[in-house]
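sorry for the late reply, my laptop died twice this morning and i had to redo everyting from scratch. anyway the thing you sent over, i finally got around to it. pasting the sequence first so we're on the same page, its 463 residues, then the predicted structure underneath. double check i copied it right bc i was rushing
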Amino acid sequence: MKKCIARGSVMAALMLFLSGCGSLPGNSQQESAGQSASEPPSETIDYSTYQSYWMKQHDYKTMPICAFIAPPVKVGEYAENFVTEAQYRTLAESGINTAYGMTENLPLYASDVSNALSYCDKFGISYVASVSGIHTMKSASQVENAIYNPLLLSSPAALGGVIVRDEPSYSEFAGCKRAKELLEEFLPSDLLYHGNLFPDYATQEQLYNRGTGNPALPGEGYEYARYIDDYIEIFRPRVLSYDYYPMVGEDGYIREGYFGNMSVIRNRAAEAEIPFWVYIQTCSFNASVRVPDEGEIGWLVNTSLAYGAKGIQYFTYFLPNDDGEVFRGAMVDREGNKTPIYDYVQRVNGQIAAVDEILMCSFSEGVIVTGSTPCPVPEGDIATAYTERIEIEAGHVLTGCFDHRGNPVYYAVNNSIAEPDRAVFSLEGQKGYYIVDGEKREFENRVEILLEEGHGVLIVPEG
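ok and here's the structure:
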């Protein structure tokens, strides 16, 4: 992978060559992103990715929308084997475009993985495979044997990547790096070799040794920021992914550190010139965690977009088996039936699909807080330069500010899970369009809109 040039040079190059943020033939994203599909290859310019990554089955304008626990095999409490064409059609109809195969791990369920890849190819879904114990494998022959059928045997078109480790500790980073390097000996290097990090409310022991006590926690402790930095330095991820499940209790409470954790991830990702992806809570997994309602799911997705997230991952699509935890909610139950949460996610995915062409090709410049906020927003994330460009009147709105090819755009969200908000965005002397609930409308000088709980609106001035 080529080294990215500095952002200022990138923007100058983009303006000089009138580029967008597309891909070259072969979709070598990290090397060629930032270049429109119609633009000829350049031998001298290494284009920025706008801190975006897209799955190779899709184009640069498509934000990854991912399902953790794709249709599962018949294991544990699942009523039947759900790796079927009908179930993958249902997944695609939800607006999800990337499936994480979790139950049908390799090498044990090779035929099911092969079937899943075939269905994904039919419905335009990118499939990220799971390999049992991949982060502990030490030799190329181990990896080759594990993935040979079907990942090497058939070179499946729908393969988007491999899950290396979910919530690795520092003690596992070296093993994850080795696994990624071994995978790259057999599979294309531009696939997603995926890891997902703990939230900041994990214990230091979880962060360092996954609570095993081996190796022993350093005397000075092990702070969250160091955990993130070590992961980036050792594993060199294509995306910085983490989970944070803030909907706890039964009275509309949200963990206060929600934006603080996102801030750390966002800033570290920006420094590394990679995107960050978030997990969206759709279920409960213990008595203190509630099943989110529609406004809460919308709030989680839209605040993430406003903060600059370039990938949305749902935890979970299928309801997991109970294994030391008791799960409720999710988009599809263990009998394969859609729950009301499926409809909530489908609606908000329609908004993502309507705005991702802009957001995937924009730099996040920070946020503006108008009125109240349910949890604190770090002062360093405030986009002070943008407060002079737009005037906002609202009771509780969070507005993400973006640089889209040198022009400002805004993604605003009703920053409340409890009540709607009538918001006014004044952009004197400007006109353009805005997108809300997946619908595009024109404006001149101002946008006045009633935002339901957790809903978002993209505002694109055009002059």
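Confidence is low (pLDDT under 50) at residues 1-47.
thats about all i looked at so far, will dig more tmrw
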